[in-house]
Amino acid sequence: MEKQEKRGIIMGKTIAEKILGAHMGRDVSPGELIEVDVDIALGNDITTPLAIIEFEKLGLKSVFDQDRVVIVPDHFAPNKDVKAAQQCKMVREFAKKYKITNYFEVGRMGIEHALLPEQGLVLPGDIIIGADSHTCTYGALGAFSTGIGSTDLASVMATGQIWFMVPESIRFIFHGSRQKWVGGKDLILYTIGRIGVEGANYAAMEFCGEAISSLPMSDRFTMSNMAIEAGGKCGIIQADETTIEYVTPRAKREYKIYKSDDDAKYKEVYEFDCSRIEPQVAFPHLPSNTKPISEVGDIKIDQGVIGSCTNGRIEDLRLAAQVLKGKKVHPEVRLIVIPATQAIYQLAVKEGLIDIFIEAQAVVSTPTCGPCLGGYMGILAEGEKAITTTNRNFVGRMGHPKSEVYLANPAIVAASCISGRIIAPEEVL
Amino acid sequence: MVIKGKIHCFGNDVNTDDIIPAVYLDTTEPSELAKHCMTGIDPAFPCRVMSGEIMVANKNFGCGSSREHAPIAIKACGIACVVAASFARIFYRNAINIGLPIVVCPEAAAESTDGDVLEVDTTQGTIRNLTTDKTYTTAPFPEFMQRLISAGGLMEYVREKRRQMCIK
Predict the structure, then answer these.
(1) Which of A45, A259, A236, A3 is nearest to A122 (CA)?
(2) What's the CATH number where A354 sits?
(3) Reported ipTM
(4) pLDDT, tens digit, for every residue of A296-352?
(5) How far A259 CA sits from the closest chain B CA (Å)?
(6) Which of the listed residues A240, A262, A277 is the one where a domain comes to its end?
(7) Which of chain B's residues have a Cβ under 8 Å away from the Cβ of A56?
């Protein structure tokens, strides 16, 4: 009996604990502080310059592994102004000096969290760290992936290792089937609305259930992407056939799939009935300030944005095009569409989606984070309101401190840009 | 380390766009970042704050992006320590890594008022509010963090580690 119990304690692990344990070469438990090897380290044009300053102080001749450091200038790139140009230049020169294999220049780049999975650089079972909070996106592949700071990145570039506290896991089970127009964005907004912006602070979120199994990879990336908006360290979805189908043509190295044990220990377990979840809109100024679309009321908008690491994938553009086809954006609204990578952009051209957007009088931009963080390419003036597929609606996030940002899925953004008010897609179709 | 200073109070969920709006992320220069510290929610803050003062906040301080510019801006504008009911995790590790002392203490956060004077002892794990004459206990830093801090921050710690890797 005692032996069985002991065995039970050893056996009962979550995916997060198993991935960290595999990289440590021994079992690990929540709360434990570990120093662990990482598979991929990521930086961008905003966070890498600070890491470079710290890294250069060490006087090293090389990074820990030139193939495992990935640098993507995407936030203020293509260079938005002279200061951004200086930062991009610094990153470019660093990549050249240390022979970084995976440096993605303008013309080859994309928004980092859409680009890395597309390029097969991040795989199931990996530990990935990135100096960008939305690095949690790769949890959708069944990886342990989390955002860190620039000094952390400098230290990982030097040693290939990072310190972590092994997180407790919180399980979210999504039962039933999704309503029409409900996608990954709505499920994650609903979740954040239920638990709050610190509901999963420090914890590994694990998404499962039949509604998750039926989600395409694009929607899974959207869900994992926004785990950080609930404070989560990562947002993991167990790899299945959908994941393998996505990863197989892309992977250039071995990977491993981990599953949570039936007797794994969770800090909390939430069960949601998807048949009762409507499309969601997060009101200013927190992603947790959510309402179902039927309760939104009358909100006039000035701008729409479809893009970002959250919802700039081809499936998102297809959804928006489905709503916009043969229609025009409201005369008092600007709609900005930003395919997340060059490959997505090209596919959107081939599929005729870009024609649909231009005919609807939307603008289409080259891949960039741009307006999502109030950088450029669609900044809001005082008093303006935007409906957007991005991930944050903090005060001033997209421009003036007195502007407002509403978060929703691509179909709602497209429909709202046609009507000039936040509405459900079926109202314009 | 003992830090004594007047406090500036903030509420729940102060995010990194509040601390340093993204439009100012075009530089890594601490003195430049300091000029815009907290201007997302309090435009007058950089003019009001004095060197050696303490920031006190409620739950989930530093939520949002991973920008290390946030703790750098706070440190560069003179804040010697941040006390909060809780911190968002990336902000927490960034602050530790750059050497900005931060302390979790829900009780002290709840019972402090703007302008009070606090005395924070990070070694002993105590906070005294000299205005209200109340003392609070906090969790001491875990062992590895003490090592990291005694090495002079994460990068000094890494320098030593990389040297050992070369020896191996």
Answers:
(1) A236
(2) 3.30.499.10
(3) 0.75
(4) 999 999 999 999 999 999 999 999 999 999 999 999 999 999 999 999 999 999 999
(5) 25
(6) A277
(7) none
